[in-house]
Write a structure and sequence with these properties.
By secondary structure, the chain is an alpha/beta fold. It has 9 helices and 9 strands. The structure holds 2'-O-acetyl adenosine-5-diphosphoribose.
């Protein structure tokens, strides 16, 4: 039996499947990952672009970085990896939870529903004054966007380093992984916590963990099956190996 067939068998027997994705799943859509050559954090300091302190001291630079990413994602399309996960979600419906660290919304554009966005997304903004959240998808933003209601600065509705994850989303993600019979971990370096901790939670519960990545990661030692390669190739193969 090939590695993919072994994993397909685990998935087909699983009553509750959870998936955790990271930037690697969107790499084949032309969106850079964070770490490694060509990554967003290569030559850029995350502490000066993705922290509340950076936004307080230089909001224009932070907004420039997020506008660049919004524009890039708006010009990109979901890839076969996103579509394969959307199809998995349809097949397993209520017993399938897709958790992502990504802020690009490509899972939703591929047709996934109820995606748990641990780090927010690039298209909502939040007012630093009245705290309301607004959808600004498809809207061209000025260098320093302001709230229509109270006039305070708007910020990207993403989670920055040093900030808490949205508690309701995090609790749903933890619960899904605690109850899962299989966890797929796709395209993440598994270095950023608490998200990476979901892999350890699964391993502690004896839940089979399957990693799909170009290379081994910080948490590969806790993984039961590692499928090395591009998620845009492996996920469609996995889907094709599952009973219809
Ligand atoms: P990273 O850039 O840390 O890791 C991307 C992972 O994807 C690496 O392990 C790559 O080997 C893998 N990869 C790249 N291309 C791939 C492909 N085609 N198929 C499969 N795997 C591939 O990105 P994340 O793990 O998502 O947080 O980073 C986690 C968090 O750190 C992000 O959400 C972001 C970042 O700083 C915040 O901004 C708060």
């Amino acid at each position: 039996m090939s590695d993919i067939e072994t994993v397909a068998e685990i998935l087909s027997r699983s009553k509750r499947t959870a998936v955790l994705t990271g930037a690697g799943i969107s790499a084949e859509s032309g969106i850079p990952t964070f770490r490694g050559l060509g990554g967003l954090w290569n030559g850029r300091d995350p502490m000066s672009l993705a922290t509340p302190e950076a936004f307080a001291s230089d909001p224009a630079t932070v907004w420039e970085f997020y506008r660049f990413r919004r524009d890039l994602v708006a010009r990109s399309e979901p890839n076969p990896g996103h579509f394969a996960l959307a199809e998995l979600g349809r097949r397993y419906s209520s017993n399938f939870t897709l958790i992502t660290q990504n802020v690009d919304r490509l899972h939703q554009r591929a047709g996934s529903v109820d995606v748990l966005e641990l780090h927010g997304n690039l298209f909502d903004v939040r007012c630093t004054g009245c705290r309301q959240t607004f959808d600004r998808d498809g809207v061209e933003l000025p260098p320093l966007p302001r709230c229509d209601d109270c006039g305070a600065l708007l910020r990207p509705a993403v989670v920055w380093f040093g900030e808490s994850l949205p508690q309701d989303v995090w609790q749903r993600a933890e619960r899904a992984v605690e109850q899962a019979d299989a966890l797929l971990v796709v395209g993440t370096s598994a270095l950023v916590y608490p998200a990476a901790g979901l892999v350890l939670t699964a391993a502690e519960h004896g839940c089979p963990v399957i990693e799909i990545n170009l290379e081994t990661t910080a948490l590969s030692q806790f993984v039961d099956h590692a499928l090395l390669g591009k998620s845009g190739e492996i996920l469609p193969q996995l889907l094709a190996s599952l009973p219809a």
